[in-house]
User: Fold these one by one.
Assistant:
Number 1:
Amino acid sequence: MFNKILSNSFLIILLLVIRPASANVSLVVLGDSLSAGYGISQADTWVADIERRWQRTHPEFSIINASISGDTTQGGLNRLRDVVARHQPDAVFIELGGNDGLRGFQIDSIQRNLTQMIEYLHGEGIYVALSQIEIPPNMGRRYTSEFSALFGAVAEQHDVPLVPFFMLEIATQPNLMQSDGIHPNLAAQEKIADMMEPKLREILQHVATL
């Protein structure tokens, strides 16, 4: 009888310590207008599309859109603590830097902001994934090249996955872009969700096993 009680107690401890694969896990998208849905309804963004898909197929996963149009890496860093406190995510996908690049912000400054975000999140025990960002060559070949390279450098330095930039497959198709030539339109959201859903799901599946 005593051995049975010990066995049951040990099993309960294991269940409490080891997170099952089906445990509820959440991911915050910390992005700019490309994720916030500039020019379209919040309910029609690619992030909202993924949320609806997961409600049907992976109810143990949730995704929260904490993106703000016009945001920069400095803006993301400034509001990161509040975002974490409000949503308590298990993972954060950082999609920031485009506005920094379009405004010609210093490469070192962008890299420093991304690094501080990642270090803070890691310190809170939160898994991080980083989006590669690309900008048009308006700022000159050297700046554009250095800008593109900084994301891989940050990801490698902090051992975080670097997710390919979803706009590379969208921006070359005028029928998927708004008239400003910068932002994806309503028709593009489902296509972006098709690209991003398996990548973000893989992140949460990994987090669920940690």
Note: The chain has one domain: 21-208.
Number 2:
Amino acid sequence: MRVLGIDPGLTRCGLGVVDGTPGRPPTMVAVGVTRTPATLETARRLVQIEEAVEAWVREHRPDAVAVERVFAQHNVPTVMGTAQAAGIAMLVAARHGLPVALHTPSEVKASITGSGRAGKDQVGAMVTRILRLTAAPKPADAADALALAICHVWRGGATARVDAALQAAAVASARQRRAFTQARPSRGAS
């Protein structure tokens, strides 16, 4: 499975592509950061992010996209920019028919380091170790994007199987209800 991990941000948006399957060490395909100038109006910055994510999807052809789930912060302008960038990432993935998974920062940290409270340095060190790199990707947004992709490879397969099982159970339940309803005699029949 090839996963494009996206650490959304209006100023810096981390992008990382990983190939892997659960139970095997993943490999890095590409990593980078797209930057937008703070002096540019927000709409133009979002266009630049969209163009960058679009280019990465076309070049690397991922099977899935993993985006960091935006969580509430006290800094509203930062959260707004992050949410807008995340929306752009999801839009590009949807345009290409790719499944999108949202992972919380603590979920990613726990998956990569074993602790949901790990610091950025710990995440970078573990990404370096897991992918057998010679140095941690810089800036931290790049390492975070790779961590998202790794997390999805490791957890995404299980999540997809659970979702498929739930969907199959819902379909089976609906069939049983229809069969029961059709087999029941109507109340007015003698």
Note: The helical segments are 42-60, 76-95, 105-113, 120-130, 140-183.
Number 3:
Amino acid sequence: MKFASLDFTRRQITAAAVGTVLALAAGSSALAQAAKPASLRIGFQKSASLLTLQKAQGTLEKRLQVLGVPVQWVEFPAGPQLLEGLNVGSVDVGFVGEAPPIFAQAAGANFVYIGNDPASPEAEAIVVPKDSPIKSVAELKGRKVALNKGSNVHYLLVKALEKAGLKYSDIQPVFLPPADARAAFERGAVDAWVIWDPFLAAVEKQSGARLLADGRGVVSNHAYYLAERGYAQKYPQVIDALFEDTVAQGRWLKTHLDEAATLIAPLQGLDVEIVKLSLHRAQFNVQPITAAIAAEQQKIADTFADLKLIPKPVRIADALPGARKAVAAR
């Protein structure tokens, strides 16, 4: 059964998780499947609200206790840095936006996609200060625009400029991680900022930042769960437990937004109302990767290759679990 070609309904998610395990485990020895890892090291960002909730509630630890596998949480400021951690072996799994895996794959990182959170186009946007004279994306020509290089908003910026009749080369990108970008934005060192939730919700609520455009009608803004390829192949039962817990907690979050926001807010250092806004704009409906989702990701990869943002073209299919033999053979 090929993981990338499956198409699931929501009620089939549990069965899909089993399919994921089978795909990841194919070709592994019985001994490898039975082996127990020293731990599950999860790369996360405080902005990853669902993982932050899981960490706060300890639900994954309870599931993995049965397998005798402890959980370690390793925090990163953003997706590109998290993928660097995955590439050098400091974490086993991670959750990032749609662009970081492409940059990482182009750099030779050895990972597989194990799941995705459906499209959340409202959860990322291009913003300007409330008193800025800039009224449209077209007016960004020649302006300084802050963003985290290689993050999900990198693609939003490219496509929003394209929709406005501009090229990426028409603006001056200023690459900064979220905290530094917020500081530059508020002191007027940049003209606009491309950012995702909950940083987006925070700058809207706290600084009155004005939206020029979000992802609606421009990009899908998927988010992805990734695993180091060797770990996923050796320990499919751990990946299965992670998937099941993420599905369960995602459903709980969407039906208990107020309670979830109260738990998450102090961990993100934000007001509850800011967190509620960010939670409202995300799906938290974790699903396996389908062929259609992989095709969307390939379009992003091709765009980045055309713009020379990555050093070489990449094939998203090479980072799907069923492709591991073909990759190893090259």
Note: The radius of gyration is 19 Å.
Number 4:
Amino acid sequence: MTLQAVVIGTSAGGVQALSQVLPRLPADFPAPVLVVVHVPPRLSNSLVDLFAAKCRLPVKEAEDKEPLAPGTIYFAPPDYHVLVEASGTIALSSDEHVNHSRPAIDVLFESAADAFGPELVGIVMTGANSDGAQGLRAVCAAGGQGLVQIPATAEVATMPEAALSACPDARTMALERIVPALEAMIAR
């Protein structure tokens, strides 16, 4: 498998969960990492500053029409869906909320599955609704890999449980095992 991109979705408890994963990515990690965290629409994106200080990879807010760069972590801006176009560029959308959320995890995962197919990894972490479940199903249906935080270890298990119901082939794992799993996929 050639890993072309990683998409991550999380909600309630997500900052703590991401703090156990993103800083562990090595400085030479070759794929772009796109992250959706459900944040209130009027908040400025403090996640970028928070994670830029912790991570070895560059961290930025996703921008419309921006080509994806390898080894870069992109956070969805508040109140915008993030999509990946077939050309490997980012598209932002202010379309209707999906699962009561904008940005929505499903929107990112489904568009990334269309763009990257079997060369995509989708990761669903802690959260309080079912956003990400249909998106992870799309990732797996396109031949990509699905990883899900072990529900019992999630601050809120609803999102990982929904993802596993929608995509039973996804692998569950502890947060600290996610980066080694990604590195093993790259090494293959």
Note: The chain has a mean pLDDT of 95.
